[in-house]
Amino acid sequence: MINEEIIRQILNEVVVDESIKNISNDAIFKDSGIDSLDHANILFSLQEKYGLIIPDSDVEKCNTINNILQYAKDHGKAG
After folding, report:
1. pLDDT, tens digit only, all 79 positions of the chain
2. Which residues contact 40 (CB under 8 A, 6 or more apart)?
3. How many CB atoms within 10 Å of residue 68?
């Protein structure tokens, strides 16, 4: 089950910049300094650890913590 705490933990693992670790739930990743590689690594980590499958066509929809949570909820992986 994916929740906000899990996403924040993954952000801490993937993103090195301390200011990004406190990103708000609605902050768009690329506007907050998270580049496309880090964004991909965040989503890949969720896929590896929790089975959340995000097709390439939906990656841009998962550009905030809240959007990832909603996507996971809509696809049966949030709790």
Report:
1. 889 999 888 888 887 677 777 889 999 999 998 999 999 999 999 999 988 899 999 999 999 999 999 999 998 877 6
2. 59
3. 26
- For tokens 């939906």, name the residue: 58
Q: Which CATH number fits domain 4-14+21-74: 3.30.1540.20, 3.40.50.720, 1.10.10.10, 1.10.1200.10?
A: 1.10.1200.10
Tell me the pTM: 0.88
Residue 8 backbone dihedrals phi, psi, to 5 degrees: -65, -40
